Amino acid sequence: MRRPSSAGRPSAAGGRAPRPRDGQPEQLGFEGMPERLFVCTPSKLGAYADCPRRYRYSYVDRPAPAKGPPWAHNSLGASVHTALKNWYALPPDRRRPEALATLLKGTWVRDGYRDDEQERSAYRRALGWLESYVESLEPGVDPLGVERVVAVKTGVLAFNGRADRIDSRPGPAGPELVIVDYKTGRTGLDADDARGSQALALYAYAAERVFRRPCRRVELHHLPSGTVAAHEHTAESLARQVSRAEDTARDIMAAERAVADGTDPDDAFPTTPGPRCGWCDYRRTCPAGAQAPGKEPWAAVDRPAEPPAVQD
Ligand code: SF4
């Protein structure tokens, strides 16, 4: 887990003018010239959909405003994700539950916990999740991809993202791909979460094109409860999610153009205050977030309760 920079915190008014995205020069829009594709990941699209101001702090303002301290739930999630990645890097005959403690220790991220006792308790919990989870895996079966980057272009987007796992499973007409996303938040997830996840749908859409095999099933594997929430997409439902992502990309590009044309950046990227402000990395920078009560960095791993709005 990377620690945030302590430099570059802007004023509370957040009046710094955004620069062109990713430091690239803006293209001039000549008639007949193809529009520039919007380069994006699921996190980038999700940040704007959640709160345009958070998007601006993350992706537009440079230098970026300083983030708050690291979150323990992000450390826990990253540790478990990397341990599972390294599990699959072992030769199949060494994938035994006894290997998990070493894997988890090797990938453990310490940031954000209240104290050593809380951290040790989280480690023991995570090890228990992993031990139960690997019991459910088919021995000797390798996924098609682990933390695999898939990318695709549409008329608007140049999408790329890293799927936790891509499985190849037998289907009625041959092998089919399945997108698997690990979750470590405190509450379970259901089929509506799998159906509504734009990230999973975009991974499926991209994987189908990268591997030239059907990829319609998406699964959320919730390690704390050992449950799997799944959804079977259709070509139409994937296309709808892509279309929504393109709409978001158009909104972002319009906001950036408006700033370039002189609109106040605070107006082009408005705040959308809500419960998620307490978990926002930019709460101390954002004038709306500063009004919201903040969460302690370890709050989400402290005891079973509502999950944080931002988790992985
Ligand atoms: S604190 Fe709230 S309103 Fe401000 S950027 Fe974060 S999510 Fe948006």
What does this protein look like?
The chain has 312 residues and is α/β, with parallel strands linked by helices. Helix content is 38%, strand content 16%. The relative contact order is 0.18. The protein binds iron/sulfur cluster (SF4). Iron/sulfur cluster (SF4) binds next to helix 2. Residues 41-287 form the PD-(D/E)XK endonuclease-like domain.
What structural class do you assign from the helix and strand content?
A: alpha/beta
| Residue share in helix | 25-40%
- The shape is flat
Oligomer: single chain
The termini sit apart by 12 Å
- Can you tell me the CATH architecture of the domain at 145-242? Alpha-Beta Complex
Major sheet characteristics: 6 strands, mixed
Nearest-integer average pLDDT = 89
What's the order of the H and E elements? EHHHHHEEEHHEEHHH
Small ligands present: iron/sulfur cluster
The number of E-state strands comes to 6
Computed over alpha carbons, the radius of gyration is 21 Å
CATH fold description of the domain at 145-242: Lambda Exonuclease, Chain A
Number of helices: 10
The proportion of strand residues reads 15-25%
Specify the CATH class of the domain at 145-242: Alpha Beta
Unreliable spans are 1-29, 305-312
Sum this structure up briefly.
Keywords: ATP-binding, DNA damage, DNA repair, Helicase, Hydrolase, Nucleotide-binding. The chain has a domain of 98 residues: Lambda Exonuclease, Chain A (Alpha-Beta Complex), CATH 3.90.320.
